[in-house]
Design goal:
The complex is a heterodimer of chains A (151) and B (217).
Chain A (H helix, E strand, L loop, with lengths): L9 H32 L6 H21 L6 H24 L28 H24 L1
Helix pairs in contact in A: 1-2, 1-4, 2-3, 3-4
Chain B lengths: L1 H38 L1 H4 L6 E2 L6 E7 L4 H16 L4 E7 L6 H13 L3 H10 L1 H4 L21 H7 L3 H16 L7 E4 L2 E2 L5 H16 L1
Parallel strand pairs in B: 2-3
Antiparallel strand pairs in B: 1-3, 2-4, 4-5
The chains are: A mainly alpha (151), B alpha+beta (217).
C-alpha cells in the first residue's frame, strides 16, 4: 500500500509547530527589545500598566525559546497564560487611553499616568496598540499550535 | 540543525538591530541637544542664579539641579574638586530643577539662606543630610531646619524670607528654561553652552578639559 503524499507525518506536525512557536518567539523578542528601546534608549518612563505588560512579555522570550530546543508542543501550556494575561492588560490599557473606561477606575494615579499617550505613529499606532497586536498574535500562534498538535 | 541556525541568526539579527538603532538614536539625540542649547543660549544663564568661582573664568559650568536629588549631591563634591584643580578657570552656575515632590520648598530655604550670604554652606549641609530629609524621593522641608543649625543663620529672618514671592518666580523661570533646554533629569550640565554627550562625570571632565584647552588657545 502506498501512503498518500498529503497526510501529515508526526515529523511534519512537529516542524509546523516549531515554526509557529518560532514566529511567536520572534514577536516576543522584537516586542521586548522594542519596549527596552522605548524605555532605556528613548528614555520614556513606563507607566504601571506598561510594567505589567512587560512582566508578561519578557518571560515569553525565554519560555518560548526553551520550547524550541528540543521542540516541545507542551510549551503552549506554559506560554499561553502569560500571553493571555498580557493581552488582557494591553486591552485594558487600550480601553483606558481610548476613554472607554471611566476615570474613577483608572489605576496608577502617581508617577506616569497610563492614560498619557506618549507615542503616536502614522496617526493611530500607539504603544498599547502594538502591545495588543503582539500579545494577540502570540496567543493565536500558540492556540493554532495546540489545535494542530491535538488533531 | 537548520532550526538552530535559524534561531541563532534571528537572535543575532534582532540584537544587532537593537544596538544599531540605539547608537543611531543617541547620536541624533546628542546632536539635537547640542543644537537646542545653542539656539537657546539665553535660557542657559539668568542673572538671578547663584554662582561660585571667578566671575571672569573662561569655563562656565551650568548645572540644573534638585536639592533632593541624590546624584546631584554625589556629584557636587566632585565638581568642587574639579574646580579646585583648575583655580580661577571655572565658574559654576546653579539652576533649580526641583523635580522631586516638595523640593521647591527646599529651594526656598536655600534662597533664604542666600539672602544671608550662606547659600553654599546651606547647600552643602543639605546635601550631606539628604538621607534624612529626602527619603523616598519626597523632600520634607520640615526636616531640613535642624541640619542648618550650625551655620549661624538668622532663623526668624529665614522663616520670613522663604515666603517671598520672588522665589516662586525664580523657580518658575528656571523650570521653564529647563523645559526649553529639554532638561528632564538632574543633574544636567552644560559646559560653555554644550550639553554632556551622555551622562557621567568622565564626560563632564572631558568637556571641561576641552573648554580649558580652547580658552588657552
Amino acid at each position: 500500500m502506498n501512503t498518500p503524499a498529503h497526510i501529515e507525518t508526526p515529523a511534519d506536525k512537529a516542524s509546523i509547530g516549531w515554526t509557529l512557536i518560532f514566529i511567536a518567539w520572534l514577536i516576543a523578542t522584537a516586542s521586548t527589545l522594542g519596549a527596552l528601546f522605548l524605555g532605556e534608549v528613548m528614555g520614556y518612563t513606563p507607566c504601571l500598566l506598561c510594567w505589567y505588560q512587560r512582566i508578561a512579555m519578557l518571560p515569553l522570550v525565554l519560555v518560548l525559546a526553551a520550547g524550541l530546543f528540543p521542540f516541545d508542543a507542551r510549551v503552549v501550556r506554559y506560554a499561553l497564560p502569560l500571553a493571555l494575561a498580557g493581552l488582557g492588560l494591553a486591552l485594558f490599557h487600550l480601553a483606558l487611553i481610548a476613554g472607554w473606561i471611566p476615570e474613577s477606575i483608572k489605576p496608577c494615579q502617581q508617577g506616569v499616568p497610563c492614560s498619557d499617550v506618549v507615542v503616536v505613529w502614522f496617526g493611530f499606532v500607539t504603544i498599547p496598540l502594538l502591545s495588543v497586536m503582539a500579545f494577540a498574535a502570540i496567543a493565536a500562534l500558540l492556540l493554532i499550535t495546540h489545535i494542530k498538535g491535538s488533531k | 540543525m537548520k532550526q538552530k541556525t535559524l534561531f541563532i541568526v534571528s537572535a543575532v539579527v534582532l540584537l544587532l538591530a537593537f544596538v544599531a538603532a540605539a547608537v543611531f538614536y543617541s547620536g541624533q539625540k546628542e546632536e539635537a541637544a547640542r543644537q537646542l542649547a545653542e539656539t537657546n543660549r539665553a535660557a542657559l544663564m539668568r542673572i538671578h542664579s547663584p554662582t561660585m568661582g571667578n566671575p571672569d573664568a573662561p569655563v562656565i559650568i551650568v548645572e540644573f539641579f534638585d536639592p533632593a536629588c541624590e546624584t546631584c549631591g554625589a556629584f557636587y563634591p566632585r565638581v568642587k574638586k574639579l574646580m579646585a584643580a583648575h583655580p580661577d578657570k571655572i565658574r559654576l552656575v546653579l539652576r533649580y530643577a526641583p523635580f522631586h515632590d516638595g523640593s521647591d520648598k527646599v529651594v526656598a530655604v536655600l534662597e533664604a539662606a542666600r539672602k544671608q550670604g550662606k547659600f553654599w554652606p546651606a547647600l552643602e549641609a543639605l546635601f550631606a543630610s539628604q538621607r534624612d530629609w529626602a527619603a523616598n524621593h519626597t523632600a520634607q522641608v520640615g526636616k531640613v531646619w535642624k541640619h542648618l543649625d550650625g551655620l549661624g543663620l538668622n532663623m526668624e529672618q529665614m522663616a520670613f524670607d522663604i515666603t517671598a514671592p520672588e522665589i516662586d518666580k525664580l523657580i518658575a523661570q528656571d523650570l521653564e528654561d529647563a523645559r526649553t533646554l529639554n532638561v528632564t533629569m538632574t543633574p544636567e550640565y552644560f559646559v560653555n553652552g554644550k550639553p554632556l554627550p551622555s551622562f557621567g562625570f568622565e564626560q563632564l571632565t572631558e568637556l571641561v578639559d576641552q573648554a580649558l584647552a580652547e580658552s588657552t588657545r
